[in-house]
What we know:
Layout: H1 3-16, H2 20-33, H3 39-43, H4 45-58, H5 61-74, H6 79-86, H7 93-103, H8 109-121, H9 125-136, H10 143-149, H11 156-164, H12 172-176, H13 184-194, H14 202-209, H15 215-226, H16 237-241, H17 250-263, H18 266-277, H19 283-296, H20 299-311, H21 315-325, H22 334-346, H23 355-368, H24 374-380, H25 386-403
Amino acid sequence: MNNINQLLLRAQAAQGTADWQLLIQYLHELVLEKKPKNPEIQENQAELLKLALSVLVVGDFQQRWEIVKVIQHLGAIAIPPLIEILTDEEAEEELRWYAARLLGEFQHPDAISALVELLKTEDDEDLRAMAVSALGQMGTLAIAALTELLRDNATRLLAVRALSLIRHQEVITPLLSVVEDTSVAVRATAIEALGSFHDQRVPPVLIRALDDIAAPVRREAVQGLSFRPELRDTLDLVTKVQPKLYDFNLEVCCTAAVALSRIGGDDAAKYLFQVLMSPHTPGKLQMECIRALSWMETPSSLEHLCTALNQLESVALCQEIVTVLGRIKQPQLTPIATEILLAILQKQHPALENAAFKGVLALSLGLLARIEAKEALIALTKDADELVRLHAIAALRNLEVRRE
């Protein structure tokens, strides 16, 4: 008796004694470790599937997770019994969830039909979510069926969610058909998905969505435009995104700050600075503007941060500026960032009364690792606060390491 037959007999014996973990071990060896096209494996596929399904039906969550790969490797032969499980309303919810997950692994029309039907008839949110995910991972094969679901109000959102998972040009047309839907969730999901495509039909749609009545849609539109910096001048993106810094919704404002940092330009930096310095700006948005200015890494953005550091009274905001200056990476800008930080010590900035602020200052000087900061760091090693001294010592060590 050859090795494969022996393993199969052992697997059958493990099933007979309900030793599911041992059965999984044998099936993994038979299906995943042996050559899948081995004639004996092919001949016994039906039996192997039967054994694997027995684990799927009665196993615990972990055992079901482990048997998934076995069933997947057995191929399309698994589709009919999985559909039977999926459509059995009396079956355990978790079992049906796994059946939906597995069907998504097969690029097969029957699997698509079963999952689409589930979206039409099932009330359980977890099952519907898994069906959406499964259809999404099927790629272009599922687009036609999902497009049909867009016609029905009951399934439109689910279809849009599934289409949004298929990052292929073919989904652009069906997604464009719902960007003015009455449902906020449908519009927001469609705009989010469209924002990932570099297609000439998309930017005008995103620009129109900037003025959508719903904040989630505006936010997705801003974010989508942020990934198109090459259109900065052609579509005057800075001018179009800048008003969203003053949106009624704070999340939209924060997204606009990040977007302007990605789009770039001195005018974008200027608008971020204006919002940062306004006494009416919420603290969260001020923090986002500080980070956005630092991410731009331009001489003008650093100049704005320097000005803010000298004019803002909030220790928390000043500390954030010191923190982000320490993260500047461009070699031509690290001397400027170091100079700004050293000026804090020279001018005896009011925030220096705060020990945490001084500690962050020492840390940032160490990260920038400029030799001109050595004397200032040595002075900080004699500070009255122990944490400041430790940060200064670590910064000096970092400076020495960088020099080597």
